[in-house]
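Box 4.2: Ligand-aware structure prediction
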Amino acid sequence: MTTEVAVQQAAEPAGMFETARNNLRIACEKLNIHPDVFEELQSPRETLAVTLLIRMDDGSRRAFKAWRCRYNDRRGPTKGGVRFHPNVSLDEIETLAFWMTFKCAVANLPFGGGKGGVCVDTKKLSATELERLSRAYIEAFSSFIGPDRDILAPDMYTNGIVIAWMSDEYASITGEPLPTAITGKPIAFGGTAGRTDATARGGYLALRHLESSLNLDPEKATVAIQGFGNVGYHCAKLLHADGYKIVAVSDSSGAIHDPDGLDPLAVMEHKHSNHGVTGAKGHGKTRKISNEELLELDCDVLVPAALERQITAENAGRIRAPIILEMANGPVSADADAILTEAGCVIIPDILANSGGVTVSHLEWVQNRSGFYWDGSRVRDHLKTTMATETQAVWALHTELNLSMREAAYVHGLRRIAESVEARGTQAYFEQ
Ligand code: NAD
């Protein structure tokens, strides 16, 4: 059961969203974009805030704040995950929806950006309470979302079963047995082959594409990975298979470091039986370190694959890796970004590095609509071509216009979004 609290249009943002808006301002200046475009993109198109009321197992009722934001839909229906996390806020959801707008444009997908979330600690819910919450979210937003309007996907703590409950609820409400409005579905429920490791694979492909430009030798390069969940683990596995030495990984239990290298599969087996990576053994003397130490290790590539704002002005000066592959969304704050860029660190930005997930989600949407299903190799081939094309385009802007990789990615995405805004007419047209 749900109670609508407010329909907000362009709520006054602060914090993370200000940083995002600053990235937009810089990209608009670099491209000399028409002010109409900046005016449109600096605010979300619409955000719906609701309170979800669910019955707990003990018979009581509890309220949870929830949001869904459709940031911009000029290039197509909005697309973005739903996050269940105690720190979810309006500011975070609108920022993530802004990033999705640019990520979809960078990947050249026919989508705008959206995001949703519920302020909840899922570890404190039983499985039946979690199911009621997942279904309540869809009930609340059923008229806001849709296959041609706003498409949902998994995000933090919304795993396969949560997405299956959401898909099932949407199917009951709409009478559509296979909901195209939600991607990341289990394969038996219309999901696509190749989605599980798609985000990690996209980042891996971007890094491999840039190897010669970055003077990276896979046989010698060392990698530290923060966050050993879906993205961090698959990233470690793919890089390790190509010769990269994974010297450190971490999760919420702590971090481990082994200069002689770790085997990602063995670490994952240890994590499964011990609820964390700490205690896993590598090829040499494996020691436990803190999460802060992992970020500051002397390695060639640092991969933040856990949370936002892990590298800030406080620790940026101590980061020694010359290359950062941003697999999490927003792991480097704006002031840290300036410090690292000044120091010569190359940051492969989130809106490019982790765009593999939404690229394959687009293929799920296409397959659901056509009723024809691809095999894993076709999905991977498509992802490989997309990542190579867009990574090359961003790299070319980075070198030709002397932009950071982040600025280059924003400029690349903005060009495409601006074209779609301008195609509908700007002030210049009406002044003719
Ligand atoms: P996940 O929940 O599977 O894994 C997250 C991992 O981070 C877990 O191992 C957790 O223990 C660890 N972690 C949490 N706090 C930590 C800390 N302080 N230090 C070190 N590790 C910590 O999530 P995921 O799907 O792998 O996503 C990781 C990041 O990638 C998130 O920021 C997510 O938004 C982003 N992302 C994911 C996808 C996707 O398709 N899964 C797509 C785009 C972006």
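In the box above, the bound molecule is nicotinamide-adenine-dinucleotide. The CA atoms of residues 28 and 309 lie 24 Å apart.
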